[in-house]
Design a protein that fits this description.
This protein is of the alpha+beta class. It folds into two domains: 1-15 and 81-105; 17-78, DNA polymerase, domain 1 (Orthogonal Bundle), CATH 1.10.150. The chain has helices at residues 17-32, 38-41, 49-55, 61-72, 85-92, and strands at 4-8, 14-15, 80-81, 97-101. It is elongated and about 50 Å long. It starts with a strand and ends with a strand.
């Protein structure tokens, strides 16, 4: 019987997809002077920012992630908790210890 449940934040508890993808698109426009289609960037969902940048072949991953995080602030109003999460967590907390993890800075 499980006694603990751990949730990831992005894509599990909160919907950050729009913010993540559009801020990356903005970042790449600044750094590479290239506009990527959102569909081309969807592979980054579920992996760390640094891993995503490295998969794109960008060598200055650390600097790129810093800029990406700054650009992410422009989209903070699009981030929201998924419907039903609050009720789910309240129900689960009566029988389980809950934890939340993230790879975000």
């Amino acid at each position: 019987m499980y006694k603990n449940i751990v949730f990831d934040v992005d894509g599990t508890l909160i919907n950050t997809e729009y913010a993540v993808l559009h801020s990356l698109q903005d970042t790449l426009k600044v750094l590479l002077n290239k506009i990527y289609k959102i569909e081309e960037l969807e592979f980054v969902l579920g992996i760390t920012g640094e891993a995503a940048i490295k998969q794109m072949g960008i060598t200055n991953a650390t600097e790129t992630v810093v800029l990406w995080n700054k650009k992410l602030n422009n989209y903070k109003n699009s981030v929201c908790v998924f419907d039903g999460i609050k009720d789910l967590l309240q129900k689960l907390s009566t029988d389980y210890k809950l934890g939340i993890v993230t790879s975000k800075t």
